[in-house]
Structures are given as structure tokens and as C-alpha cells.
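#data-curation
PF: Archiving a pair of folding outputs for the training set. Convention for this channel: one message per protein, sequence first, C-alpha cells after, nothing in between. First:
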Amino acid sequence: GADRLDKAAPVVVRPGQEVRGIDFRLQFAKNSSLRGRVTGLPNDDRGNLILFLASRDLPGQDNSPLGYSQDPQNHTFEFKNVPSGSYTLTARFESAGPQYSGAVPLDVNGGETLETTIPLSPAIDLPGSLRIEGEPAEKRPAQVRLTPGDQQGLFSSPPAVDVAPDGKFVLKGVLPGVWDISVTQIPKGGY
């Protein structure tokens, strides 16, 4: 008796087993439209604006192709036929200069037309240092890597950089968002 996939009960069928009494009843649901504008673009806005609509109810489901259209002249967009649910709308602007990114959470209810604005912020360079306490048995080059810590769409490879012999590093072009940081090539016994 669920009206959405994320609320449906799983049905387990073992090899060779027949399951009877499973009935499907489809119900008409009104979809919505999502319209808006992207702000915060650089003055020289020659580049590529990419939008990504991701379900927060069903992570990993890309809803961007749902009747998507965009007007690059005035930085507006529209998604048609969006099912009810919770989403994150992410925008990224790629150009020869700095990259820009932004995201807004949205809750969509059937049959409505939702208006939103996505403010973009420029990427930054993120400096840091890595210190290994104690003396490792063997010295190996380390790398610092960022991975998305939220459900936002990722449009390119996650930032990663080799750590210099003095322990310093700079992750270049880090876009606004929630990130998890990790270190690879950790010495034996390290954590």
C-alpha cells in the first residue's frame, strides 16, 4: 500500500520459489514543474552551465532528463514532469576561468509549479598540511583526496593532490559543498 518506491515493502523471492498474491495497483499522480534562475555567475559568463536534479528520497537517481530546458542568455531553467519528493538541485558553471557551483534543497508536491534561485559561489584553493606522528617504518608518498559528503551530483573527478615532502598540500578548485577528506598511502600502523 505504498504510493512511492522509497516507501514500498521489499518482496524477497528465493531461487525456485513462486510467490502468489502480489498485486500492483497504479494510481495517477500529478507531476510538478520546477523553474528558476542561476545567479552569481562571473561577468564574463562564456562557459557551460550544467544543472543536476537528484532525489534525496532515492539517492543515486538522476532526474535531470525529466523535460529539462535551459535559456543560457538569461540563466533560467525549467524541469517538467517532476514527481513529488525531496530533491537537491545543483548547478555548476564551467569555463576557462574559475569554476562555480551551488545547490538548493527542494520539496516538490504534486501538481505545483515551484520557483527557485540557485546562487553560485566560486571554487577555492584549500591549503593544508599532513603530519605523521612517530617514525614510520617506511616513508611513502601520501595523497590527500576529497569525496562528496552529501548527495549532490559530482560533475568531475574529486579533488586530489600529492603531499609535498614537508607535509604541505593545496587542493585546487574546491567547489562549495560538503566534503569528506581522506589520506592514501598511510604508513603501516597508521590510522
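PF: Second:
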Amino acid sequence: GSSYLKLPKQLTDTKGYLNINNTDNECFKYAVVAALNPSKKNHERPIPYKKHFSKYNWNGLDFPFQVKKVNFQKFENNNPDIPPLNIHVLTNYTDKLPNPFYISSKPNANSENAINLLYFKADSENLVSTGHFVYIKHMCRAFRKLTKHKELRLPCVNCYGTFATQYDLENHSKFCLTQSPQRKKISCKDI
């Protein structure tokens, strides 16, 4: 990840994302720290978050951060006490929805306290080119376009199936989180 990139309009309209306006190449750090240490004001400014960088172990990680599963695993191994980390990648802006890329192997990857980040790029064709990480602060809002329901529904981080209750999501997770991440075109209730 790199410095600040403006989110596509279809994402900002959901009000589900927090995009830190950083000028360095540490957007991954800012997004993680924003999830773990919410700011009471100036949410999109980097200053309230930078002071929390030293709380976490960034050893063995290079910045700008490369989108590789091994890097996310290393971060989680370096920081065993943090909640599960899930990474979603927006590769096609016309699709309007990201795809699950890395889902934590820690228990409770679908829990409300899991860290969900979005990685996107100005050039959506090349994953190797430098992009930007943002914190998905409200999964229900961010992924609302998954369903035509008027009420907010809880999305599964692994397949993006949606559920009316936390209980239904937890029951679904017992099976789904044992599978490889992929966005389903069918309802997860059909599995």
C-alpha cells in the first residue's frame, strides 16, 4: 500500500469505509491502527493514529506493503493478541464489490471486532502496482449492495453471503470459514 488514494464514489457513498489521508507509504499501518484505536475526531487525518504504531510489531514487513498472503500471515503472527485480520481487494471498479483475498485463520474471523481492510488501486488492472489500504469500519454498510433487502444484513467475510442475525452468521461460519475465500454468486443458504 502507498499514500492516500481517493476511494471510488460507489464506495464512499456507502459510508462504510475510513480512508486515512496519509502522505507516506504506510497506509496498511494506518488502516490497522484505525481499526484497533478509533479516533474520536479527525477520523481521516493520520495524526491520531501514528502515535499507536509502536503498540504493534511490524518487524519483517516492508513498506509500501505488498498484497501477499504471507505478509498478512506474518503481521498476524507478529501480533497474536489482535483480532482476526481480513483483506478484501477491489480489482474491478465496474463490479462495485471487492473480493475476499485473505481471511484470517484465527477463530472469529466473522466477528464484529475482526479487522477488515480493503485494498484498491487507481489502476484496477494490475495488483502488483501500488494501491491503498482503507479500514472497512461498517461491513454491513460497505457491502449493502450484496442484497436488495432494505434492512442492513451481516455479510460473511469469506463468501459475502448475508445474514439477518449474528446467530445465523455464526452458524454459517462454522462451514464457510473452512473453505477458500471466494465471492459466491448464489445465496450461502444454498450451500
